[in-house]
Design goal:
Layout (H helix, E strand, L loop, with lengths): L22 E10 L2 E11 L4 E5 L6 H8 L7 E6 L2 E2 L2 E4 L2 E4 L2 H8 L2 E4 L11 H11 L5 H14 L15 H13 L5 E5 L7 H16 L4 E4 L3 H7 L2 E6 L2 E6 L1 H6 L4 H10 L1
Parallel strand pairs: 3-10, 3-11, 8-9, 9-10
Antiparallel strand pairs: 1-2, 1-4, 4-5, 6-7, 11-12
Helix pairs in contact: 3-4, 3-5, 4-5, 5-6
The chain binds adenosine-5'-diphosphate and magnesium ion.
Adenosine-5'-diphosphate binds next to strand 2 and helix 1.
Length: about 270
């Protein structure tokens, strides 16, 4: 498609009409003071789709992820995840804000992997992964620890379950953070520059875990500057600039044949 934005209400090609979009962002605006950081974002992410968000520093990539997760509240527009509106519920003809508790429950169904891992320093790798399913009452402590072992195995860290974050490399810490995100069986996982805090030799191990998730059909939204990785893993690339979706499409289109001068300019700097 060459249209720069998904038009609301237009069926997405290839979408299963019965299944709700994994993520639907509609008409989202976000200001910080006078700074218009998200300027009318429309985006539909289908279940199982891997979306990579590219864009220059300050273009609003992190803010967009934070709005999807309701860590930031947009001043206009709305977001749904798995068909469920985020942060609000229907109330008569209008919408009413959800309680903080209900928002936390929603957030627990959306995985978030941060640039700086954000592990609990006083918990082992195993307990970092097991903590949330216990805290949210989804699993008993024993079942959560069993799941955590499986997930640590899956990210190649079965032998480091007892290690504390400070005893792990950055790449290992980020893999624990990915296992932790998986522990809540989220409908979608958001990654905000998951490898940009890593030494170059540790980037590959983290990207390889993300590639496995992509191949396994998990819905992923990834902000990254790793263009080679984006090309390999993405079903769709969304290029953001000045808080707008300037261009989107399959990697071959956006990376090799970008239609917008801003995309070309950005790629000429990072490639
Ligand atoms: P990106 O992730 O693409 O680099 P961000 O979403 O972090 O961009 O930020 C977009 C713009 O919003 C930047 O100019 C940034 O300085 C500003 N910004 C981000 N967070 C805040 C905040 N909490 N308060 C004020 N300005 C912010
Ligand atoms: Mg950012």
């Amino acid at each position: 498609m060459s249209t720069p934005l998904d038009t609301p209400g237009t069926p997405v090609p290839g979408a299963q009409s019965a299944a709700p979009a994994a993520v639907e962002v509609h008409g989202v605006h976000k200001w910080y003071g006078a700074h218009h950081v998200l300027d009318g974002i429309d985006l539909t992410i289908r279940p199982g789709e891997v979306t990579v968000i590219l864009g220059p520093s300050g273009s609003g990539k992190s803010t967009l992820l934070r709005v999807i997760n309701h860590l930031e509240k947009p001043e206009a527009g709305h977001v749904s995840v798995g068909g469920e509106p985020i942060g609000v519920r229907r109330h008569g003809k209008g919408l009413k804000e959800l309680s903080e508790r209900a928002i936390l429950a929603q957030r627990s169904r959306i995985g978030f992997v941060f640039q700086n891992f954000n592990l609990f320093p006083h918990l082992t790798a195993l307990d970092n992964v097991a903590a949330a399913p216990v805290a949210t009452g989804r699993l008993s402590r024993g079942a959560a620890r069993e799941l955590a072992r499986e997930l640590l195995d899956r990210v190649g860290l079965g032998d480091r379950a007892g290690a504390y974050p400070r005893q792990l490399s950055g790449g290992q810490q980020q893999r624990v953070a990915i296992a932790r995100a998986l522990a809540l069986r989220p409908g979608v996982i958001l990654f905000d520059e998951p490898t940009s805090a890593l030494d170059p030799e540790l980037v590959g191990e983290v990207l390889s875990v993300i590639k496995d998730l992509a191949a396994g059909g998990t819905t992923l939204v990834i902000v990254t500057h790793e263009i080679g990785f984006a090309r390999e893993v993405a079903d769709r690339i969304v290029f953001l600039d000045g808080g707008r979706v300037v261009e989107q499409g399959p990697p071959a289109q956006v990376l090799d044949n970008p239609s917008h001068p801003r995309t070309r300019d950005f790629l000429s700097k990072v490639l």
